[in-house]
């Protein structure tokens, strides 16, 4: 339920008929003669609160603990990434999310990239982690490091944290260079999740670092995760999701890149991602039901 308590949702779902006293019943119970009707939240709310959240909590604790222990002997974070992929698969499977991947042939195994994606839902990360067969690290806000288990996993797994209030550009670039020497990065360049599904303007910071590191940028469009769980709603629903991978873009080789150069690159990548989201968002369900040969083309999410 988007920004509502259970009680508020019950009130908003009450029938409009009856007297004013009936509609204003603070207990959510409408009396119509001898009968009483109590409007409950939808099934998927109950499924989310009493099944999915407990299940995902268990996945996070067990696999997070395994990844933390593995960091004692695996300094590169490779085993921790395998835990993250298993965690992603379990979440998608438990929720009922089917993922179709397009454009995998455009990227090469063994090459490190900066994957730049739009951001519509907290389910974007499980979708990307499970679907892309690369060692992946994320750039996360510093506050995530304080979360029990999850934050510990991210820190021990060599993910990059950024303090938005006091960014240390030199320190960030140093850690960035250390990361990209052995893994690819995921960047949500909008900086936050979209509330309406539109792709907001991309922030230039990550693109500035990409130019300096001379790593190829891969535009990625995630379609349909808002149907699973949009920002502000405490309810998940099974859905079909599409992940579109575009051709890598090599940043310009510049001796002294400027903010203007980074913004130009950000606008170029944004145009690609936004065009894909705009083109596919409305026709998402029909496009996922069958492929060119009439067969279902969803990604097999078996481990």
Give the secondary structure arrangement, pairings included.
Elements: H1 6-12, H2 20-23, E1 29-32, E2 35-38, H3 43-70, H4 78-95, E3 97-102, E4 114-117, H5 124-131, E5 136-141, H6 150-156, E6 160-162, H7 169-180, E7 184-188, H8 205-213, E8 217-223, H9 225-228, E9 239-245, H10 259-280, H11 284-289
Parallel strand pairs: 3-9, 4-7, 4-8, 5-6, 5-7
Antiparallel strand pairs: 1-2, 8-9
Helix pairs in contact: 3-4, 3-6, 4-5, 8-10
Sum up the structure in keywords:
11 helices; Glycerol-3-phosphate (1)-acyltransferase; globular; about 300 residues; disordered C terminus; alpha/beta; seven-stranded mixed sheet; about 40% helix; 2 domains
Protein architecture, described:
With 303 residues, this protein is an alpha/beta fold. Helices cover 41% and strands 15% of the residues. The protein has 11 helices and 9 strands. The protein has helices at residues 6-12, 20-23, 43-70, 78-95, 124-131, 150-156, 169-180, 205-213, 225-228, 259-280, 284-289; strands at 29-32, 35-38, 97-102, 114-117, 136-141, 160-162, 184-188, 217-223, 239-245. The strands form 2 sheets. The protein has a 7-stranded mixed sheet, with helices on both faces. A hairpin with a 2-residue loop joins strand 1 (29-32) and strand 2. The two termini are 32 Å apart. The model is unreliable at 1-33 and 284-303 (pLDDT under 50).
Mean pLDDT: 80
Question: What fraction of the residues are assigned to beta strands by DSSP?
Answer: 15-25%
Order of helices and strands: HHEEHHEEHEHEHEHEHEHH
The overall number of domains is 2
Low-confidence stretches: 1-33, 284-303
CATH architecture assignment name of the largest domain: 3-Layer(aba) Sandwich
Give the C-alpha Rg.
22 Å
* CATH homology superfamily name of the largest domain: Glycerol-3-phosphate (1)-acyltransferase
- Indicate the percent of residues in helices: 40-55%
Any idea of the CATH topology of the largest domain?
Glycerol-3-phosphate (1)-acyltransferase
Terminal residue distance: 32 Å
Which CATH class of the largest domain applies here?
Alpha Beta
The number of helical elements comes to 11
| Largest sheet: spatial strand order | 3-9-8-4-7-5-6
Number of strands: 9
The outline comes out as globular
């Amino acid at each position: 339920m988007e920004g509502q308590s259970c009680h508020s949702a019950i009130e908003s779902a009450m029938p409009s008929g009856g007297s004013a006293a009936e509609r204003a019943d603070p207990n959510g119970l409408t009396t119509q003669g001898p009968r009483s009707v109590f409007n409950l939240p939808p099934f998927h709310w109950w499924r989310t609160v009493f099944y999915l959240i407990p299940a995902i909590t268990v996945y996070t604790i067990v696999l997070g603990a395994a990844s933390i222990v593995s960091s004692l002997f695996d300094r590169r974070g490779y085993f921790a990434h395998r835990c993250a992929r298993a965690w992603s698969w379990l979440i998608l499977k438990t929720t009922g999310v089917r993922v179709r991947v397009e454009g995998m042939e455009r990227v090469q195994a063994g090459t490190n990239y900066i994957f730049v994606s739009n951001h519509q839902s907290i389910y974007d990360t499980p979708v990307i982690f499970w679907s892309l067969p690369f060692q992946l690290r994320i750039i996360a806000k510093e506050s995530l490091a304080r979360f029990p288990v999850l934050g510990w996993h991210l820190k021990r797994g060599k993910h990059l944290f950024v303090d938005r209030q006091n960014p240390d550009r030199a320190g960030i670039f140093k850690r960035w260079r250390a990361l990209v020497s052995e893994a690819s990065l995921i960047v949500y360049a909008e900086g936050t999740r979209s509330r309406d599904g539109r792709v907001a303007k991309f922030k230039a910071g990550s693109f500035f670092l990409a130019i300096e590191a001379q790593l190829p940028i891969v535009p990625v469009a995630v379609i349909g995760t808002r149907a699973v769980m949009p920002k502000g709603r405490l309810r998940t629903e099974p859905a079909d999701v599409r992940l579109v991978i575009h051709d890598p873009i090599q940043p310009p080789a510049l001796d002294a890149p400027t903010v203007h150069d980074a913004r130009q690159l950000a606008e170029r990548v944004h145009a690609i991602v936004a065009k894909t989201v705009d083109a596919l968002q409305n026709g998402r369900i029909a496009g996922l039901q069958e492929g060119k040969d009439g067969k279902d083309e969803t990604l097999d999410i078996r481990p």
